[in-house]
Prior knowledge:
By secondary structure, this protein is mainly alpha-helical.
Amino acid sequence: xxxxxxxxxxxxxxxxxxxxxxxxxxxxxxxxxxxxxxxxxxxxxxxxxxxxxxxxxxxxxxxxxxxxxxxxxxxxxxxxxxxxxxxxxxxxxxxxxxxxxxxxxxxxxxxxxxxxxxxxxxxxxxxxxxxxxxxxxxxxxxxxxxxxxxxxxxxxxxxxxxxxxxxxxxxxxxxxxxxxxxxxxxxxxxxxxxxxxxxxxxxxxxxxxxxxxxxxxxxxxxxxxxxxxxxxxxxxxxxxxxxxxxxxxxxxxxxxxxxxxxxxxxxxxxxxxxxxxxxxxxxxxxxxxxx
DNA sequence: TAGTGTTTATTCGCTT
DNA sequence: AAGCGAATAAACACTA
Length: 291
């Protein structure tokens, strides 16, 4: 969490830390979307990707669309460590929450599920920022995986022994970032059932650990319990990312071409302008052209 | 023993 | 101000 507060002084930043500038990367993709540059410019890091991951190539760091002075400020300027901006922008914090990073990592993998370490590697391969302070953010990653219902554990198959389970996305979690806001979801995804107590949080404090079954079977929630790999296939009807604004589509479409319905955007430290594909700062209301 | 996973607590920023 | 989402820290348990 270094080098962040100084971004407030960057062009486009209001005194309140809102990001009003429309930052456009060299390929014209919004910083708020999943970087389309992922699909371009194979970089050396791709070779470090584990076999389970699809050959999506991180871009050269110099072209990273998500890192930009004045934009790397996450969470609306939330920072605890005031440190003057000195580093290259390739080491600024990407404008994605950990949840969105995990989602991206899982989503781009061929098997739609990754081990914890693979998630670490994907993030570090793509975002140099996360090559530092690994203990800090990796703890946060683990916390996010455990805490959020949108992530489910998939046990390793016997032919893939190793440490840790695979992590996948909940089949119903696909629209978490449908409004283009990758820092703050409209609503936290909760795995619900008819009683409203089916999520991980419901499991916490009642039946104990989500994964405490001695058999090693993950029982994170009622819906995850029946998750099968088929759900993780793109052609499956429950595939989480069929929304036009989904990460999957953002990653696969030319960035300037997708012009979804103007979303009603809530929450948001930063959102995507559907007309321009430019990044907007705080946008709790639908984006309209000022007259 | 290191890595993984869970849980709790705290803090912060944004929205309502 | 309250509620919420997110980031961070830390403690603890489990497991390969």
